[in-house]
Design goal:
The chain is built from 5 helices and 6 strands, in the order H-H-H-E-E-E-E-H-E-H-E. The protein is an alpha+beta fold. The strands form 2 sheets. It has a 4-stranded antiparallel β-sheet. The chain has a two-stranded antiparallel sheet with strand order 5-6. Strand 2 and strand 3 form a beta hairpin.
Length: 150
């Protein structure tokens, strides 16, 4: 079928079919997961993941763009023993506004997404920070969500 994102893009372009770059990455990732039997490995290893939101920052000068810092705890079995891996990452997300609908009630779509691991002292700072939670009491009064440290 296709062996790389580039190969997929070329084959789609040759048929005259247009698909945006983000969707190409999604299709390629899903195919790679299917080929690698990712779902079977998750079931066999009893893998579970929990995300802990640590910080949420607005990117200055870039509308609807956010930097999110968090810890993804991945629990799995290794030789019959539970092991937890901690992945400390920075996530950059840009959303775009669209019409609200039943299928998309907030009217937002993810336009760009990236993540990168964080190392060193900053990693330890994020790893040891308390979770950030939505303060629904203040959000209701301000017409949006605000975030505070737990």
């Amino acid at each position: 079928m296709f062996d790389s994102i580039t190969d997929l893009s070329i084959k789609l372009a040759s048929t005259g079919y247009f698909i945006d770059p983000v969707m190409i990455k999604v299709v390629y990732t899903l195919k790679a997961m299917a080929d690698d039997n990712t779902r079977g490995k998750i079931d066999d290893g009893q893998i579970q993941s929990v995300f802990h939101l640590r910080e949420l920052d607005v990117v200055s000068g870039e509308p609807l763009t956010y930097l999110i810092y968090g810890v993804k705890d991945v629990h799995h079995l290794s030789n019959g023993t539970e092991v937890t891996d901690h992945f400390v990452n920075e996530y950059r997300i840009r959303v775009i506004a669209d019409k609200r609908s039943d299928t998309n009630p907030d009217g937002l779509w993810i336009a760009e997404y990236s993540e990168r691991p964080i190392d060193g002292e900053r990693r330890n700072q994020i790893l040891n920070a308390p979770d950030t939670v939505s303060s629904s009491e203040t959000a209701a009064n301000q017409g949006g969500q605000s975030w505070r440290q737990q």
